[in-house]
Amino acid sequence: MTGAVFFTWIFGVMLVSARLSVLFIAAPVFGSVPVPARAKIILIVGLAAGLASTVNVPSMSGFSPEWLISAMLSELLVGAAMAAALFAGFGAFHFGGRLLDFQSGYGIASLVDLATRNNAPLIGSLLTMLAVLMFFLVDGHLAMLKVLQLSFTAFPIGAGITSLDIGLLIAYFGSCFVFGFAIVAPVVLCLFLVDMGMAFMSRTMPQMNVFVMSLGLKVLVGWVVLAIAVPFSAGLVRSVFESIFNVWNKVLG
Length: 253
Fold this sequence. Notes:
By secondary structure, the chain is an all-alpha fold. It has one domain. Helix content is 76%, strand content 2%. The protein contains ten helices and two strands. The chain has helices at residues 3-26, 28-31, 37-52, 65-104, 122-137, 140-154, 166-183, 185-204, 210-229, 234-252; strands at 111-113, 118-120. Strands 1-2 form a two-stranded antiparallel ribbon. Strand 1 (111-113) and strand 2 (118-120) form a beta hairpin. The protein is elongated and about 85 Å long.
């Protein structure tokens, strides 16, 4: 390997790492995992070294500081677009869980994530962790790496991002609210019926402390209906994952 070829490969690894880094750091599938930063860097650089030999990198004669900065920014934006689609897809589960937190009374409490030292909603965190588990069980991470490799065909290194369709990505964020509500719709409906029943009781028996009584009842009904509804939501969860890859295909197409 001559010096020019070696330095071309080094620049290729650096630019591929820029696209990978945003996806592996900002995406909830990998960003929320308490992995040391050194291990993440080794993983990103290792994958970039494997992908750099399969992508077209301009020769050393075309390199300049201005081109290198522009190419680095382009790679970061492409990786950010892919990470945003993945973040929005998993945001549907977080939104659905957060909706149940408020409706069942868990909105006044939160969990403390010891890894990130941040507060997290109870049911929202549970649904997000289940979504991450299912994503790996269906080999979603392997499909993601395949899409990532194909993205270098749609957006070669140094080619710019003029054809990147951000409008589709923005529209996808709106559809994730629909997915999030659909995941927890049976539980939301049952809790709404409980609220209606409690409101009727408060009018007919005003001497009862309906507020205190409804808290325990809503928690019980919420968990029971959620346990019943989760096994039947596999098709909907699959639709959420498929929508992520469809958006990648359209945005990167």
